[in-house]
Specification:
The protein has 4 domains: about 200 residues, Clc chloride channel; about 200 residues, Orthogonal Bundle (Clc chloride channel), CATH 1.10.3080.10; about 120 residues, CBS-domain (Roll); about 80 residues, 2-Layer Sandwich (Alpha-Beta Plaits). The protein is built from 25 helices and 9 strands. A 4-stranded antiparallel beta sheet has the order 6-9-7-8. Strands 1-5-4 form a 3-stranded antiparallel beta sheet. The longest helix is centred in the first third of the chain and has 41 residues.
């Protein structure tokens, strides 16, 4: 190659490397591609749903015309059977709402979603909804968009962090295109999926949502999802009424979550083939739809009927109850569909009931349609624990700014009350039951796995006092132990209260040191049980600014078993964190083996091993062996030629499958074979 051509080639390569190294430019380009993919994916998805509905209720309905009106019982069951077979033998993660699967992928697989979801999820959901299944489009389009983002990221071999960002961008783009709600899509991705805000993820999510929204506008138009009757802004006296609606919405939302996952567990316990379960769920929906066809599908027509006050109280209550049962049967049995539309449906029914009752009592109050809008947002906020997303979604789907204040108030109240009633959201409850905590993050997830009894100082090792202990003796104990608080117990180890150093200092300031502990201790004490988690106990520490909490027997709350102090929590967490780091290192090793086809060897060096005291460059490693890292205590070292190995070091090496024995002999000094998970290899 001539010199000019070589310089041109080098310049092109340098430019490409510079572009690839620019995080912002890479993410903007990839976000644009994700937005295009998710936008057109949403268009195809809605087309599939419409045509599936025509096939099942028109074409298939004509074929089953000999059944008369009873054909609607069979149609959802047939759709469920097709979905069960499709999901069972192609992509099991395509069953259910979809959002939980995306959250699991972000938490456990660094955002990697199988590309098969892109093809299977649209068909599974379109068949479920088209055949009358009671579910929504939101969860599936989130999973489809996330799968597109993940697939493009894996194709470009981007880092784990970039992959997660593009998964969230794909989810936002799907919502933006499907519901004509770009703001809601962005907020859903940041509030629910990533649970964090930052410039890079925010930028990529916004770009993808904008591009997808433009595509959605071109195909679906720019009209709001719901036509809303004109209404005036609420007066100040209306706000307490909307606050009550928020409380009622919390009860409905939590009831829906509990019912849905009770049905889900019931279907899991049924002893027959999984692919038949959606057919049973479809049969239940079909029976309900025989008399109340409003429960079929997403139910937007019924929502608009409520907005225009076309349904009575009995109809509203009946449809709301049946929708909970129909949705639980559809999704709980393994059908494919989201929970957003059912939440809107339930909120509309609740808001319609509430609005009609309030309007009858006070005719001058807001129109019933205003309560319908607020109920929709509040129920979704209570179920999803995503109040910002709920508020923005309803605002964008209706574009009624007059409702924004009651939307905000009721939705926030419903979310707070729902969290008090039930810890998990509709997206996280199933993951939580499998031990996956995506809401709190890794550190607090560790806290949720440690029990109080594993961290507390037991009663036998505690310094305690009695009510008759003199204050001078108490001062001596505080001075010697350096504790800031002690449990006050009687002769039977029964808890009477807690005395703090601040109590003693207050007595000293008032010159009351001639008294006893009974004169200054506090008998009103917050306690925890030994089977509580540290995550739960931490709430008491933070909310009450406490440094110690007595641990009592759950069956006998006056019997003290120990004391949980801040230091106990720190020590327990540190120990668990080290164990977790070791576990994650083993997982990373397994991933590396899978991707490279080579073995990852972990070896803890002992006194007798040849490599101890040797520098890395003198190890005479086998050919094609890479010394990846050295774990020394709580540090991870990158091996260099002059790095000297020490006793206790854990050497991590990438070695060809036929070179493991040789490497082991070079490090140990003799040929030994240890099982991969033996203590020698940990």
């Amino acid at each position: 190659m001539s010199a000019p051509l070589r310089r041109m080639s080098d310049g092109i390569s340098e430019t490409y490397d510079r572009i690839r190294a620019s995080e912002t430019l890479v993410m903007l380009t990839m976000a644009l591609l994700v937005g295009v993919g998710a936008g057109y994916g949403a268009v195809a998805f809605r087309w599939l749903i419409d045509n599936a509905n025509i096939f099942f209720f028109d074409t298939l309905g004509n074929w089953l015309g000999f059944l008369g009106r009873y054909y609607v019982v069979i149609v959802p069951a047939l759709g469920g059977l097709v979905v069960g077979l499709l999901v069972q033998f192609t992509s099991p993660e395509a069953r259910g709402p979809g959002v939980s699967s995306v959250m699991e992928a972000l938490a456990l697989r660094d955002g990697r979603v199988r590309p098969s979801v892109i093809a299977v999820k649209p068909f599974a959901t379109s068949i479920t909804l088209g055949s009358g299944g009671s579910a929504g489009r939101e969860g599936p389009i989130v999973q489809i968009g996330a799968a597109i983002g993940s697939a493009l990221s894996q194709l470009a071999r981007l880092s784990d962090e970039r992959t997660k960002n593009l998964v969230a961008a794909g989810a936002a783009a799907g919502i933006a295109a499907t519901f004509n709600a770009p703001l809601a899509g962005v907020m859903f991705a940041l509030e629910v999926l990533l649970a964090r805000f930052g410039l890079v993820p925010f930028t990529s999510v916004v770009v993808a949502a904008v591009i997808a929204s433009v595509i959605g506008h071109a195909h679906f138009g720019d009209a709001p999802a719901f036509a809303v009757p004109a209404s005036a802004a609420p007066g100040a006296w209306d706000l307490p009424v909307y606050a009550l609606l928020g409380i009622a919405a919390a009860l409905v939302g939590v009831g829906f979550v509990r019912t849905l996952y009770w049905v889900d567990e019931s279907f899991e316990n049924l002893a027959f083939p999984p692919f038949l379960k959606p057919a049973v769920g479809g049969l239940i929906v079909g029976i309900a739809g025989l008399w109340f066809p409003e429960v079929f599908g997403v139910g937007y027509d019924s929502i608009e009927a409520v907005l225009f006050n076309q349904l009575g109280l009995i109809s509203l209550a009946t449809l709301g109850t049946l929708k909970i049962l129909a949705t639980s049967a559809t999704i709980g049995s393994g059908g494919s569909g989201g929970i957003f539309a059912p939440c809107l449906f339930l909120g509309a029914m609740l808001g319609g009931i509430f609005g009609q009752l309030v309007h009858r009592a006070t005719p001058a109050s807001s129109l019933p349609s205003a309560y319908v809008l607020v109920g929709m947002s509040a129920v979704f906020g209570a179920a999803s624990r995503a109040p910002i997303t709920a508020i923005l979604t309803l605002f964008e789907m209706t574009r009624d700014y007059n409702a924004i204040l009651p939307l905000m108030l009721s939705t926030v109240i419903s979310t707070i009350v729902a969290r008090r009633l039930f810890d998990e959201s509709i997206y996280t409850v199933k993951l939580s039951r499998r031990g996956i905590d995506v809401d709190a993050g890794r550190d607090l997830s560790l806290m949720s796995m440690i029990l109080v009894k594993e961290a507390m100082t037991p009663i036998e090792e505690m310094t305690t006092v009695t009510p008759t202990t003199s204050l001078t003796e108490l001062a001596r104990i505080f001075d010697e132990t350096h504790f800031h608080g002690l449990a006050v117990i009687d002769q039977n180890n029964r808890l009477l209260g807690v005395v703090n150093l601040s109590d003693l200092e207050h007595a000293q300031a008032q010159q009351r040191m001639s008294g006893e502990v009974r004169d200054i201790y506090s008998s009103k004490v917050r306690t925890v049980f030994p089977d509580d988690t540290l995550k739960g106990a931490l709430r008491h520490f933070g909310a009450l600014d406490m440094g110690r909490i007595p641990v009592v027997d759950r069956k006998d709350p006056e019997r003290v078993l120990g004391m949980l102090r801040r230091g106990d929590i720190v020590r327990a967490y540190s120990h668990a964190h080290m164990n977790e780091q070791a576990r994650l290192a083993r997982i990373d090793g397994a991933r590396l083996e899978h991707r490279t086809g080579e073995n990852v060897l972990e070896l803890r060096l002992q006194d007798s091993h040849r490599a101890v005291g040797t520098i890395v460059q003198d190890l005479d490693l086998p050919s094609q062996t890479l010394l990846a890292s050295i774990r020394r205590g709580d540090r991870v070292l990158i091996p260099r030629g002059d790095t000297r190995l020490q006793v206790g070091d854990i050497v991590v090496a990438l070695v060809p499958k036929d070179g493991e024995t040789t490497l082991r002999s070079r490090l140990i000094g003799r040929e030994e074979h240890h099982p991969k998970n033996s203590p020698e290899n940990r």
